[in-house]
Amino acid sequence: MFTTEEEARAHVRAQVAQAEKRQDKAQQMVAEMAALAVTATSREREVTVTLGQGGFVTDVLFDRIDGLDAHQLGAAFMEANHHAQLLLTQRVEALSQTYYGKDSATTEVMREQYRAMFPHAAEPPEEHRPRPEFGGRS
Q1: Is 63 found in the same domain as 114?
Q2: Comparing C-alpha atoms, which of 56, 54, 60 is closest to residue 74?
């Protein structure tokens, strides 16, 4: 395969450099993922929800809620949360594409992981209907 010892060493150095580059890329992405947060607001601007990279709610802001009953407020929260989940899924996919490419296996794994976490995020949000056992109408 190699005609000289120096060719073999050069090949090994190139492989090590390539591995170090991949590791640096992965560490950069991990840092960006850790800092990732998305914010979305309901259509009527009653509720704003912020999600962290794991999809957990990290902040909620209620505004313009005078006159809303609990069901309307719940619906506004669900709407904002649904939109934030969609944004988070899109941002993670874009971040992965930046580091690994659109068609890479890593991007596909990230895409599928977030789609599994939020299977309905790409669909338009359904109207929130509280369950009867919590005071909603059947």
Answers
A1: yes
A2: 60
CB 125 within 8 A of CB 82: yes
* 92-to-16, 32, 67, 120 alpha-carbon distances in Å: 28, 10, 37, 16
**Lowest pLDDT segment from 60-64, 70-74, 93-97, 124-128:** 124-128
Beta bridge partners of 83: none
Domain span at 25: 1-35
Per-residue pLDDT for 116 more than 80? yes
Q: Examine the domain organization and report whether 31 and 42 are in the same domain.
A: no
Pairing of strands 47-52, 57-62: antiparallel
> Residue 75 is inside which H or E element, if any?
helix 70-100
Number of domains in the chain: 2
Q: What is the pLDDT of residues 20-56, one digit of tens each?
A: 998 998 899 889 999 999 999 999 999 999 999 899 9
The pair of structure tokens assigned to 109 is: 């794994």
